[in-house]
Write a structure and sequence with these properties.
alpha/beta, Rossmann fold, N-(1-d-carboxylethyl)-l-norvaline Dehydrogenase, domain 2, three-stranded mixed sheet, 13 helices, 9 strands, 54% helix
Length: 273
């Protein structure tokens, strides 16, 4: 089996890493806090003392930390993954970051003979645990093929979208649309209330009708509690900002309707309940 390293054991990465261990890959993990690795005591995973040690023990390394700076840190610090990884290895960036960050890191990795693919994910920790996470991959075909046995441990489907950076573009556009859907879902249920309708019944209609959306389903499943969406708002705001930056950088027309809806959603989620 493939020797796999994994960094980023939070609500998303933790279930991904556990699925890798369950598929009997030789798994090595690392985290800044011992509390993050403690839940893996019941698996065969090894805990590395540094990211460099993790890199040395791995053929494929998955990184699922929060932001661009976090990805750069675990890869490029003096005792980072690239300091220990042998030529021929592959790093998979599961974090949602700027495509340029992936390209810059790929250049640094290439200096050590290591390949890099961007492989952001969508679906959440529960989807990973159920082996149905969506993985959007950008990179060379041969590198994606090397990673597929690892991705298949937690994902279905795995979609190869093109060259490096393509996976991030797809994930950012996905999150852009999802944020717009939040505004529509909030307005939809407010309107149903104003019209004297049962919002739970309306949610059932949307779940089976053509007007449904992932955002409406999530909101209904929470009992119309926006706490979870509010907690996700900083990440959504980051991703929307990157998407609009890419729109400007590529000189394409700003999507007026989507932009207005995302701004409305982020403003609503920023208010106190």
């Amino acid at each position: 089996m493939t020797r796999v390293g994994f960094i980023g054991l939070g609500s998303q990465g933790g279930p991904m890493a556990r699925r890798i261990a369950q598929e009997r890959h030789d798994l090595t993990i690392w985290a800044r806090r011992p509390a993050s690795t403690a839940p893996f005591a019941d698996t065969a995973a090894s805990v590395a003392p540094t990211p460099a040690d993790l890199g040395a023990a791995s053929d494929v390394v998955g990184v699922c930390v929060v932001a661009d700076a976090d990805v750069e840190d675990v890869l490029l610090r003096p005792d980072g993954v690239l300091a220990g990884m042998s030529p021929g290895g592959v790093v998979a960036i599961h974090s949602t970051v700027h495509p340029d960050t992936c390209r810059r890191l790929a250049d640094r990795a290439a200096e050590r003979g290591v390949a890099l693919v961007d492989a952001p994910v969508s679906g959440g920790g529960q989807a990973a645990a159920q082996r149905r996470l969506l993985v959007m991959v950008g990179g060379a075909e041969k590198d994606v093929v090397r990673c597929r046995p690892v991705f298949d441990a937690f994902a279905d489907p795995v979609i190869h979208l093109g060259p490096l950076g393509s996976g991030q573009l797809a994930k950012l556009l996905n999150n852009f649309v999802f944020t717009a859907q939040i505004a529509m879902a909030l307005d939809t249920f407010s309107l149903s209330d104003a019209l004297g309708m049962d919002r739970a019944a309306m949610a059932d209609v949307l779940a089976h009708g053509s007007g449904g959306s992932r955002a409406a389903a999530i909101l209904a499943a929470s009992g119309f509690d926006t706490t979870g969406l509010r907690q996700a708002a900083p990440l959504l705001r980051k991703d929307v900002g990157i998407m609009l930056d890419l729109v400007r950088a590529n000189g394409v027309p700003r999507p007026a309707a989507l932009t207005e809806l995302t701004e409305t959603a982020l403003k609503a989620l920023g208010r106190r309940p």
